[in-house]
Amino acid sequence: MSTADAFDLPAADRWVRGFGAVVHAHRDELTELDSPIGDADHGTNMDRGTTAALEGLDATPPADAAALLKGVAMAMISKVGGTSGPLYGTFFLRMSGALADGSPAAFTAAFRAGVDGVVARGKAEPGDKTMVDALLPAAAALEEQVAADRPLAEALRAAADAAAGGRDATTPMLARRGRASYLGERSVGHQDPGATSAALLVQALATALDGR
Ligand code: ADP
Ligand code: MG
Question: Which residue CA neighbors atom 27 of ligand 1 most closely?
Answer without folding.
Answer: 130
